[in-house]
Design brief:
The chain has 194 residues and is α+β, with helices and mostly antiparallel strands. The protein is built from six helices and seven strands, in the order βαααββαβαβαββ. The protein has helices spanning 15-26, 28-35, 41-53, 86-101, 133-148, 162-170; strands at residues 6-9, 64-68, 74-82, 117-124, 152-158, 174-181, 184-192. The chain has a seven-stranded mixed beta sheet with strand order 1-2-3-4-5-7-6, sandwiched between helices. Helix 5 links the parallel strand 4 (117-124) and strand 5. The longest helix is centred in the middle third of the chain and has 16 residues, at 86-101. 36% of the residues are buried.
């Protein structure tokens, strides 16, 4: 029997489980691209939880929708924001990487732009995968974009993640270009919201 899952706005007190799911979405290799090999994943988790607790970052709880189980435990997340705000929302993260790890990442390419609600991170806890939660989170983000008057939702998918790309295409996304992010070749996908 499938458990009842609700989608709701995130809260700051959920920063650690949200950060853990963001790291799951990024994967360790990508995390290490940003923090370096000298940091531990526990330390990076603490940094990401700090970013989630804040309201002025791309990873903020205020940019996050949570899928929660009957016990109100976060089992999935989607982090999204107006692509026009990328530079402003990314700044605290870049500053933290520089001050904490000595890593200057100011050169990284923009993964989004004005005109799309950027789906930064999508992850579902392993115990809850295969229940349609990711599809529901993607739809909730598309609904958010429409409510904000943004005509498209967009995301990057790693070239080496065909399973995720298949899900996105099944949900109505189309490939609009190529990109590099976190040291990986990516495809830029979009879905119109109107």
């Amino acid at each position: 029997m499938t458990e009842t899952i609700q989608i709701r706005n995130a809260r700051p007190d959920e920063a650690t489980p949200i950060a853990s799911l963001i790291i799951q979405a990024m994967q360790e290799e990508c995390c290490r691209y940003f923090c370096g090999n000298d940091c531990t994943m526990d330390d990076y988790l603490q940094l990401m939880a700090e970013m989630v607790r804040r309201e002025d970052t791309q990873y903020s709880y205020s940019n996050t929708l949570c899928a929660v189980n009957a016990d109100d435990r976060t089992v999935g997340i989607i982090v999204s924001y107006d692509g026009a705000r990328l530079a402003e929302l990314r700044r605290p993260y870049l500053e933290a990487l520089l001050s904490r790890y000595g890593r200057d990442m100011s050169h990284i390419d923009d993964e989004t732009e004005a005109g799309e609600l950027y789906l930064d991170s999508l992850a579902v806890s392993p115990d809850y995968q295969g229940q349609g939660i990711a599809t529901r989170l993607l739809q909730a983000a598309a609904d958010k974009a429409a409510a904000m008057g943004i005509g498209a939702v967009g995301l990057l998918v790693d070239d080496n993640n065909p399973k995720a790309e298949k899900l996105y295409h099944r949900c109505g996304f189309v490939t609009v270009g190529d990109n590099r992010w976190g040291g990986h070749a990516m495809r830029h996908l979009q879905k119109k919201t109107s």
